[in-house]
Amino acid sequence: MTTTTRTAPTADEQARRERLAVLLGRCAERHEPALEELYGLCSAQLNGILLRILKIEAIAEEALQETFIKIWMNAGRYTPEAGAPMTWMGSIARHQALDVLRRRGTRERHESTDLVSLIESTPDAGKPLHEMSEDARELMVCLERLPED
């Protein structure tokens, strides 16, 4: 069994913790520049947490935005006794990722049960798949010709 020895934070780490705590306090006061700075300092690390859990970059990026909304909305609840600011924000990110996984799992189970009925109700369900694919390509060509507005 290995043991992990916790060492005291370096002066740089302590300064970062203190800065993040100040920024969270400013976010609690709805100071938008503080949120921008907090995002700049922490988004890469929080995105890493989300990406490890969610595995898909686009979904992790969306979850990151939701994470920062939750940080903004709950910044007044942060206290140093709750742990380091990054630990607190990392916990919010992990919970956000788990919420995303739960929502996706529920939606995917629901979608898979409806797949057969969806295929059967499709007007061209009697066509071979390669013919439906050709129809889809033709539709995309037509849609691309439409003006943006």
Task: Pick out its properties.
149 residues; mainly alpha
Plain-language structure description:
The protein starts with 10 loop residues before the first helix and ends with a helix. The chain is built from 5 helices and no strands. The radius of gyration is 23 Å and the shape is elongated. With 149 residues, the protein is mainly α. Helix 1 (11-28) packs across helix 2, helix 2 (32-54) packs across helix 3 and helix 2 crosses helix 4 (85-121).
Task: Give a quick precis of the structure.
With 149 residues, this protein is mainly α. The protein is built from 5 helices and no strands. The longest helix is centred in the C-terminal third of the chain and has 37 residues, at 85-121.
Average pLDDT metric: 83
Element order, helices and strands?
HHHHH
- Oligomeric state, counting identical vs distinct chains: single chain
Rg from C-alpha positions?
A: 23 Å
Query: What is the 3D shape?
Result: elongated
Blueprint (SSEs and pairs):
Elements: H1 11-28, H2 32-54, H3 57-74, H4 85-121, H5 129-145
Helix pairs in contact: 1-2, 2-3, 2-4, 3-4
